[in-house]
Design goal:
This protein has a domain of about 80 residues: 2-Layer Sandwich (Nucleotidyltransferase, domain 5), CATH 3.30.420. The protein has a five-stranded mixed beta sheet with strand order 4-3-2-5-6, covered by helices on one side. It is of the alpha/beta class and about 140 residues long. The protein has three helices and seven strands, in the order αββββαβαββ. About 30% of the residues lie in helices and about 20% in strands. Strand 3 and strand 4 form a beta hairpin.
Length: about 140
């Protein structure tokens, strides 16, 4: 009895499972790095200023977004309750720096209204956030 010879299959590596694993690991690292960034307030387009300086970490941030909505440490608040909310946060540190993050598209009157409310709080120091403008190098 003669046994038929089988064709020899060429050895190969199936790389599809390896690609799946690599993409899974890549997705894990991308997602985990998103949690490493520190979020400092709501996203607004800050105006630029040549004299802008980095301020130390603060406890209180008042944000006015492009729609004119007001947020106290990322929580929505009405202008009428802004003073009370800031005063509650200032109980532990009466000399707190309050930073106003106002979108550049917000009307000047809205920012002044927020500043007026905050200036009535005794001991509150105000600062307005701005991005440092990069001055282009002149080729004259």
């Amino acid at each position: 009895m003669r046994i038929p010879q089988e064709e020899q299959k060429s050895a190969g590596i199936n790389i599809v499972p390896m690609i799946d694993i690599i993409f899974s690991i890549l997705a894990y690292f991308i997602i985990s790095t998103l949690y490493l960034t520190k979020s400092e307030g709501l996203p607004v387009n800050l105006p630029g200023a040549n004299t802008a300086q980095q301020q130390p970490s603060t406890e209180i941030t008042v944000t006015v977004d492009a729609a004119g909505d007001i947020f106290l440490n990322e929580a929505p608040v009405e202008i009428a309750t802004l003073q009370a909310g800031v005063r509650n946060l200032m109980v532990e540190n009466p000399e707190t720096l309050v930073i106003i993050n106002a979108d550049e598209a917000v009307s000047h009157g809205s920012v002044i209204e927020v500043m007026d409310e905050l200036r009535q709080i005794e001991g509150a120091r105000l600062a307005i956030a701005a991005q440092k403008e990069t001055t282009p190098i002149s080729t004259d």
